[in-house]
Write the structure tokens for this entry.
Amino acid sequence: MDFEQENAVWVIGHRNPDTDSICAAIAYADLQNHLSETKYEPKRAGNLNEETKYVLRKFKVKIPAYVDDVRTQLKDIAFRRTIGVSSSISLKRAWELMTTSKVVTLPITDDGNELLGLIVNGDIAESYMDVLDTRILAEARTPYKI
């Protein structure tokens, strides 16, 4: 399979890998390489025990490369650019923008496009849940129980 993707998804078992963990990483990476356009690479997060070395030698399987740090890094996170909004935006308008843009966060920016804060969909939900006047919920045809 030809891969043009520069970055691969690493498949790693646990920190003290046994034969099951290493073989699962190798098998899953191979399966995904056949099913996906994304490149998957088996890796290991620890030293191999003698049993695992024997199994890999017996079946002529390459030992997965060692990775000493499996913490998520900023470069591993996919970012989606989103337009900044004014701090005076209504929650309804924020919700509409989030829905149409298919995002769960909106950056609040000033006139110089400097980040002032964030609106997340939980903020909007919380603001509606704090409504104590059940008449408002009834008029909005929101089901509720007292």
